[in-house]
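Thread: "does anyone have the structure for this chain?"

Original post by V.I.:
We have the sequence but no experimental structure in hand. Need at least a predicted one for the grant figures.
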Amino acid sequence: MAAMLTAATASGARAASPILVMEGISKAYGATIAVRRVSLDIEAGEVHGILGENGAGKSTIVKVLSGIVTPDSGRIALGGAPFAPGSPMAARAAGVSTAFQELSLLPNLTVAQNLLLPLQLKGPLGFVSARRTRDRAAAMLGEYGLGHIHPDLPVRSLSLAEKQRVEIMRAVSRSPKLLVLDEPTAALADPGWLFAILERLTATGTGVLYISHRLSEIRRLCRRGTILRNGESIETVPLEGVGDDRIFEMMVGAAAGARTTAHAAPAGRGGPVALAVRNLAGGNVRDISLDVRSGEIVGVAALEGQGQRDLFRMLAGLTPVRGGEIAIDGKPAVIASPAAAARAGIGFVPEERKTEGVFLGLSTDTNISLSLLGRLSRFGILDRAGERAAVRREARRVDLAERYLRLKIGELSGGNQQKALIGRVLASGARHLVLFDPTRGVDVGTKAVIYGVIRDFVGHGGSVLVYSTELSELVHLVDRCIVVYRGRVAGEVPKEALSEPRLVALAAGQEARA
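Reply from O.Q.:
Generated one for you, tokens below.
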């Protein structure tokens, strides 16, 4: 299917004029330059890749095309006509539709209401018709293979993967001239659903701007890619003729080996059991037992919706435990709240950093120091000097530049937000890390930093339980891997036997339980 898509894209591209042309786009916020003289073009029917580290300018380009940000200089043409949208509504009216990495769905509204915003269908008397809205949304969901999602469900009740699919479907359903996809598969364990949609869409001549840190996806879908670095477009290259090392070098300005050594496999360690789960049940978890030892990284692999999310949230005190036992450092633990999890020494990194992990309206240093307030306060007075020193220490630990600390965390790139969140968890003094997809939507450099932080943590006797949607990440990162299927452990794979095909087979229920 991917090969068909690439071939169709290439042939369509040769026969059509550019659907999008950007020339010399620049945007600055005071002294901070977000993008400088960025240029690229996308041909009709082409999926065009954008590659770059967090902070390279990708999000600014998305906001410019979506009418959220007005560039300071430069020219944009869409379908041969000048394109200068003053609002998201104007961008959509001109034919640009965007599916954002940080989802734009309104959690308090239903799926149907979100799909049909800003206009709701009306009845004969001119009033909004909930029935017509629901029926139209149900038809849309069915058309795009999402008929299992009920249109009356509030968006907040969906899993992150379901939210991502609804976000993408809403953008695609507007029949755009240009579709902008920002890390569209970051929460999807199986991207095949999206690839099939893109094959249909590009066959009609729609251009697609595809932003992803997953180079393998870019190569499968795109004939050409534009590399951004430090806010500038370095080069647009034919992907077939450029190796991964060269692309990485253009992205970061350094040889690949200088930034990826942290991805080497760890040496297994065998300390005492630090975190134990026995016959745990709750949410979609039916019966799970596992151990994590001191000095050990244990991975969890699963296809979407198999109970892994509830497993991690029970350990974080966010999902009620229906049955079974949890033991921390050999002692029974009742984890009925996030505060109880913190007291037990568990540090949790959730899947949705912007809604569950960070406080967007607060500064980055305040976000990091939140876990330190109890230790740095005496008689209700906060030791400000101690707070600043502790924050700087944790920032260095996660390779977060000190210049970001005074900025609101909402102004940082996703990768730097994730570093700050992990820094706060480490600052809490946690002895056991429970990490749900901690590298989702971050660049290769930030991934290397996170891997290094994890390895350093277990090197000092900590324990780590980590879930990832990227099986290759688990293969290279963990000491052993637990595979979850239908709320139970389908098997455990030791380091020496870890491979993506083995994990996929177990995750799909194709092998007998080990």
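V.I.: this helps a lot. The first strand starts at residue 18 and ends at 29.
O.Q.: and The longest helix spans residues 444-459.
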